[in-house]
Amino acid sequence: MNVKARVALKNFRPAVVGAPRTGFTLLINIISRLLPFTGHVVDRRSHVIRAFADLAGNHISNTIVEAVRASGLGNDLVYNPNFRDVAGGPRWVPPEQPEVACFRKYLGIRGHGDFTLITRHPRALFESEDIPHTHSHPAFWVSDPAASGLTAFASQRNPVGTLYSSCFSINALTSEYLQHFVAPEHDNDGLREHLALYKLTDLRFFAGLVAPLKNYLEEFLEVRERYRYVMRWEDLITSPVRTIIEVGSAMGLNVDEKLAADTWNDMSWRNLTGWHKHNFRRGHGIVGGWRRYLTNEHLALMRDMGLDRLSRELGYGSIPDLETSDYTAYQRRVAGMLARGEIYRDYPDSLLFEFAFNKSNLDSSAFPYQRYEWKQHTRVERSSMDREDILNSIWSAAEVAVGHFNQAMSELLALPFELAAPPMEMFEAFVQRNSKIIDRPASDAVALLQRAWQGQVAVPRLLGSIGAHNMVQFGSVFYGLPQSLGPIDLMKTDPSALPGVIKTASYDALRAALSTAAVLH
Predict the structure, then answer these.
(1) Over 385-426, what HEC string results?
(2) pTM of this prediction?
């Protein structure tokens, strides 16, 4: 394997922007896997913010869980672990308030509905990640002076394919419900096709998917040339090695074909979103796959709403009509219902349907959600809850918890980061003042913050998988962690003594050891 710096990119810090379902997560993962080979350096402030988020990040989600339990509905809470992370969920920086970042959480209560909760934090939380990423405001990330230190990458996809994928995608809220309350034998592609029947036969819903995509693309096309690299989803699917080499080149690296091929083999057709187990559709992700599911009514609606011009400007040509004689049985069913003005609603599991309806990339203004204004730190964006008292109790608890977190983070950001070795008393006082939200013994918390200040706290980075092992870099150590061990928090646990763990000093050594282990088994 040969990978080396082609161009010295001083303090290389990537950011990824892309609409949902455009290869956004794939691009983030490619950059993440190549990042160890660049000159990427985590600054002191980011190290400390990450350590603080590790110490106090569960305070908000734990408070929400306790509020639900207090209402007697703890067993009915649907709350994906991805959203329990303080920085989890779709995130963005509002251009009108660029000093903060917003994070959207989805929560459901079986039998009572669901809602989206937005939490607002100092922007530094968003930018402390190795790869800040967002679905929103593509112009902002190449024009905001505070983002000038970031190298911007973007993903794009044929708008028709993007909308088709959105109709069949399953959100993390629904994924959590499926994992806990639906028998595994019913969790299959047939379920996705069944759920998509409503989305394809209610043209109000389909138009609600078109509108935000159109708005995003109009803004993106104005600034597309200012991005370091724009990855087309179709190019990655059809020519993954060449595309990954191009991404590496934009990162200042010479990536050889072997590393590019290994990178694609490690990440293709796999879940890349942690506890959200339904982010990819097994057996699909095929260029032109929409031709077997969308109908001419959907294509006409896209043209009517202005996507045809945008499709051409993106390089995909005009949005065509299909030959109705070539329709699949699924398309004929959808087309027949559209012709009769019939919206599919035959869902035995109404809870599953309701949770699947809620999407981040949906303009829901045509639907009867309850909407609320901002409190100081949080907002319930939209809600279908039938018990406003329960909603308000959860929201009020979250508002207080986010306020506590933000106050502590503001104190943290005011610390003298220019000092090479700050006095221990500074950390002790900080931990004591914020002991209610820190879930570690005070001595452990102080020690973690000190190590972070000195740059001695590494952040685990998933590099891929071989056989039944995940490859994880943690500081200067490369681990092969058996997937059978489940999630391991390397910030708290030394995995060296766990069964089946392989520990090496380099990426190449780890690959060789895991390849040998895979052959032996």
Answers:
(1) CCCHHHHHHHHHHHHHHHHHHHHHHHHHHCCCCCCCCCCHHH
(2) 0.85
